[in-house]
Design brief:
Layout (H helix, E strand, L loop, with lengths): L2 H6 L4 E3 L1 H9 L5 E6 L7 H15 L3 E6 L1 H6 L5 H18 L6 E5 L7 H13 L2 H8 L10 H16 L4 E5 L3 H10 L16 E4 L26 H9 L21 H10 L6 E3 L9 E3 L2 H10 L4 H27 L1
Helix pairs in contact: 5-13, 6-8, 7-8, 7-9, 8-9, 10-13, 11-13
The structure holds adenosine-5'-triphosphate and tyrosine.
The site of tyrosine has 10 residues, from strand 2 and helix 8.
Enzyme class: ligase
GO molecular function: ATP binding; tyrosine-tRNA ligase activity
GO cellular component, one term: cytoplasm
Length: about 325
């Protein structure tokens, strides 16, 4: 796989393709980040972007993980002291998940977001951005139903982080795209207080997983079922066993099932195949024996044709997910001991 393929595999969107191709021509030492509101426990949504960071690390990028403590505070996720404590827990889980400790820089937002130049730059963006624009950027990020003033400052600061961390590429789930678009439009128009380059950076967005039980809407940790590093092997098996996984999809039918995604296949595609060379589905001899897949497409085709039964696919998915999650679970156990 060449650098461009590795950088962009499983990305839903890159902005712009031309800029990302230029990075792929010489990725060594380029800087990329994902920012996370510290929430204590990594869930499968965080893991998707972390998997992309692992790809980028392999391609030669320097990875920055922003533990966005100030942003979590602005999004009403707790007191500042509580947020700082959960950030520390999250850092260890990212390393356990497979990020290379020597090539990953962890930065707290509060390390630079309270500096005078940064604060003045935020104010400059407050002057140049309409209320409507900031609110739209936050639509998929804002916690709670009521927009607060803090929710309007939040996306402006996120747009500025990309400048202050001297990044060459910003990565996030597709829910971050409007903030990234705000970055691309507003930053080049700034006067700016600092020596950083006020230039728009390319962005890469990872997919949003569908709800595990229904395949409709977004998998969410506050409602519905999600997989996290707190889950035991038995929890994972139970959750995956209950997941929506229709055996076949008939494109001609207007049955409701066709509007749903298949979360089991999504997790195979975005979380499992990028981390394992091959996937083995164990089956008793009487049902045809083990199946081995080198790529996602052949597994999906077998599920579609009926060669692979959903129950067998789910069993394998639970095993592979457990393997990915086990080291982080161990870290949590040690922290709580
Ligand atoms: N369904 C999903 N699929 C992929 N990534 C997701 C998903 N949900 C959240 N993320 C990612 O996980 C990170 C945390 O997002 P967020 O706090 O919104 O998730 P959450 O804990 O599920 O929140 P909520 O309970 O409000 O839905 C973000 O980086 C986001 O892009
Ligand atoms: N907006 C991100 C968190 C974040 C904060 C600041 C950033 O610079 C980047 C990302 C989220 O929804 O989780």
């Amino acid at each position: 796989m060449d650098a461009y393929e590795l950088i962009t595999r499983n990305a839903t969107e890159v902005v712009t393709d031309e800029e990302v191709r230029a990075l792929a021509d010489d990725p060594e030492g380029k800087r990329v980040y994902v920012g996370y509101e510290p929430s204590g426990v990594l869930h499968i949504g965080h893991m998707l972007t972390a998997t992309k960071l692992i790809d980028l690390q392999e391609a030669g990028f320097e990875v920055v993980v922003l533990l966005a403590d100030v942003h979590a505070y602005l999004n009403d996720k707790g007191t500042f002291a509580e947020i700082r404590e959960t950030a520390e827990r999250m850092r260890d889980q990212f390393l356990a998940y497979g990020l290379d400790a020597d090539a990953t820089e962890f930065v707290y937002g509060s390390e630079f977001q309270l500096d005078e130049e940064y604060v003045l730059d935020t104010h400059e963006l407050e002057v140049s951005t309409t209320l409507n624009r900031a609110q739209r950027a936050m639509a998929e990020i804002q916690g709670g139903d009521t927009a607060k003033v803090s929710h309007l400052v939040y996306p402006l600061m996120q747009a500025l982080d990309i400048v202050y961390l001297d990044l060459d590429l910003a990565v996030g789930g597709l829910d971050q795209r409007k903030v990234h678009m705000l970055h691309r439009e507003q930053i080049p128009a700034m006067d700016g207080e600092s020596d950083h380059a006020y230039e728009a950076r390319p962005c890469l967005h990872t997919p949003i997983l569908a709800d595990l039980d229904t395949g409709v809407g977004k998998m969410s940790s506050s409602s519905g079922t999600t997989i996290s590093m707190e889950d035991s092997e038995a929890d994972i098996a139970e959750k995956i066993n209950g997941a929506f996984c229709p055996p076949t999809r008939d494109p001609e039918s207007d049955d409701e099932g066709n509007e749903r995604e298949n979360p089991v296949l999504e997790i195979f595609e975005y979380s499992v195949f990028p981390r394992f060379d091959a996937v083995v589905v164990e089956r008793p001899e009487e049902y045809g024996g083990d199946l081995e897949y080198d790529d996602y497409e052949s597994l999906a085709a077998d599920l579609e044709s009926g060669e692979l039964h959903p129950a067998d696919a789910k069993g394998a998915l639970a095993d592979y997910l457990n393997e990915l999650i086990a080291p982080g679970r161990e870290v949590l156990r040690e922290l709580d001991a």
